[in-house]
Amino acid sequence: MIRFSFLAAAALAAAALHAPAQAAQPAGPAAAVDPSKLKAFATLPDWSGVWTLAPGVPGGSFDPSLTVPKGGQSGLAGVRVDAPLTPEWAAKYAANRAKVDADRFPDPVSFCGTPSGFPRVLTIPDGYEFVVRPEQTWILTENGPNVIRVYTDGRGHLPPDEIWATFSGDSIGHWEGETLVFETIAMVGDGSTILDRTGLTLSGKQKVTTRLRKTAPDMLESQMTIEDPVALTRPWTVTRLYKRQPVGSRVFDYVCTENNRNPITATGQTLTLDTSGNQIDRKVDPAPEGGKAAP
């Protein structure tokens, strides 16, 4: 977001009329960028096409390798991820899981319009596209406003007085051969985003270092190392794989308000509707005094 007053713009325009002609220079953290140090376009890896999470990893949890029971479905009662949580965060997670068991822990994206957030965005069952350029790499997802911009032009993170927490965070990277390595900071956490539907969250103080590389002609690997002094007792590394889809595959934008089959009742219960819009839940809480029944 750039704030710029009309008077300031007029003053700069007037000054430009009397200034000698010169090449435009980038402002802010990118001011010291040397174009000659950018990775040559011809040497960039080919990550074209549409990618999805590799098949054979059921459950939908953030870290399938730590999911109990193995292969358990995220969002169902009794499923958890054995992440290295601090005592404070383990207690918070236990409280969230109790809400999941009671079907009272709605996914924030169910409220529509909010992104999945980083790092969860790299673990969702949607289509991905990777736009790789010398100065930036963009990670685009099929569902909602999920865009990750990784700057590889030599700039650093924004200074403290210009940065605030966002869903995507601020990502600065570099290339190590054909591996994109980037650090992401300034992400929102607990209360705004979740890692998965088991109720797992981070504190908002997290830093994520991601290594993204191709392991086979049609396979990408992301290795995310998460550090969070509030939520985690040690760095936590999560590895996920993505498979390139057949040539000609397309990504189609959609948002959760389309064909929404998960209305939430006045008591906070999440319901499920069939293809005809009929409620299929066997048990529904009674509406509160003076409230309305579920749609």
Walk me through what this model shows:
The chain has 295 residues and is mainly beta. The protein folds into two domains: 51-244, no CATH class; 257-287, no CATH class. 9% of the residues lie in helices and 22% in strands. It has two helices and eleven strands. It has helices at 6-18, 87-101; strands at residues 51-53, 67-68, 80-81, 128-132, 136-141, 147-151, 170-176, 179-185, 207-216, 219-227, 236-244. A nine-stranded mixed sheet has the order 1-11-10-9-8-7-6-5-4, with no helix packed on it. The longest helix is centred in the first third of the chain and has 15 residues, at 87-101. It is globular, with a radius of gyration of 22 Å. The protein starts with 5 loop residues before the first helix and ends in a 51-residue tail after the last strand. Mean pLDDT is 85; it is low at 1-28.
Q: Could you give the order of strands across the largest sheet?
A: 1-11-10-9-8-7-6-5-4
Please describe the biggest sheet, giving its number of strands, its sense, and whether it closes into a barrel. Answer: 9 strands, mixed
Average pLDDT over all residues: 85
Shape: globular
β-sheet strand percentage = 15-25%
Count of individual beta strands: 11
Taking the alpha carbons of the first and last residues, their distance comes to: 39 Å
The tally of helices reads: 2
